[in-house]
Structures are given as structure tokens and as C-alpha cells.
Design brief:
mainly alpha; 0% strand; 8 helices
């Protein structure tokens, strides 16, 4: 549910802010960018698409596939609030085909879908950094060019990590 998703996402961000020791008002794009982590919804969307493909590849005589086919029929009749409708929406958002992917293994399929969803998020992140939508990101984008885990987060000295994080994310107290 959207409420459950937002609670999980909020907890994830709260945890990352705690790890960085930054203010709760720190821009989430900076937090995700320095940590190299994507929002949890990317994992959820990846799982939805993979499950959608799995259902499509099942034989039509299985009960699960029959339910899936019924949801598809309801979708085509205009009932757009079904699991099938949501699955199609997620697949279209990431420009993935609505037919099952033909690949060698389930692991290859999983990696392909996940990389597509993560790359779409990274592109969105880069677009937001490039836009003038958030003035706080103007200085951040001068030294942050790539969506990845920053080297300073691997420092053993935790106070040094905190100071660098606060400086990079403009979250220091004045």
C-alpha cells in the first residue's frame, strides 16, 4: 500500500540520516547520492516486474495463471485498480516489454530487470541534480558527478566521516 511504502521509505531515509549524522531536513538526493543507495521502491518495483514475468511464463492450466488471466481481462474491461494494471504500469514506467523476457536463466532476468530499474533511478537523480529545482544542489553537483558510494564513507574514523558528510551535504550547524 502507498502508506506502507512511504513508512518504509521514511524509515530507510531516517536510518541513512542517522548513519551520516545529518539534519532531518538534509536533501534526500544528497543522502542517496553519497551512499550510492537507491530508494527501497526500486527494489519493490523490480520484484513486481519479475513476478509479473514469472506469472506470464506459467502454463495457462495453473490456478495462479488463471487468476492472472482473469485480472488481465478485468483490466481490459476498464478495471484499472487490479494487480495486473499496477504491474503493467510499473513495467511501462521502466520501458520494459509486457511479454516475458527470453533469457538463459532466472538470475540473468533478475539482474537485467534490477539494473534497468536502478539505472532509471540514477538517470532521474542526475536530471534532478542538473535542474535548478533544488538550489541546495547547486554546490553539491560541483563535486558529486557520479551516483556511487563515496570513498569518505569507508574511513574508519567515524567522526571524520560525520564531518565530511555534514560538509558535503550542507548539513552543518552554524
Amino acid at each position: 500500500s502507498p502508506n506502507g511504502y512511504s513508512m518504509i521509505e521514511s524509515t530507510h531515509l531516517q536510518y541513512l540520516r542517522y548513519i551520516f549524522c545529518v539534519k532531518t531536513s538534509t536533501c534526500k538526493m544528497m543522502i542517496y547520492g553519497d551512499s550510492g543507495r537507491v530508494p527501497i521502491h526500486c527494489e519493490i518495483e523490480s520484484n513486481v516486474i519479475r513476478y509479473f514475468y514469472r506469472l506470464l511464463s506459467l502454463p495457462n492450466n495453473m490456478i495462479v495463471r488463471k487468476v492472472f488471466n482473469t485480472l488481465e481481462q478485468l483490466h481490459h474491461l476498464g478495471f484499472n485498480n487490479t494487480w495486473y494494471s499496477k504491474g503493467i504500469g510499473v513495467a511501462r514506467t521502466h520501458q520494459l516489454p509486457l511479454a516475458p523476457l527470453i533469457v538463459q536463466s532466472a538470475d540473468t532476468k533478475r539482474k537485467y530487470v534490477k539494473s534497468k530499474v536502478v539505472n532509471d533511478y540514477k538517470t532521474q537523480w542526475e536530471d534532478i541534480l542538473s535542474s535548478q529545482q533544488y538550489p541546495i544542489l547547486r554546490s553539491y553537483k560541483l563535486y558529486k558527478t557520479e551516483f556511487k558510494l563515496e570513498k569518505y564513507l569507508e574511513l574508519k574514523n567515524s567522526s571524520a566521516r560525520r564531518v565530511i558528510a555534514k560538509l558535503r551535504m550542507s548539513s552543518n550547524t552554524l
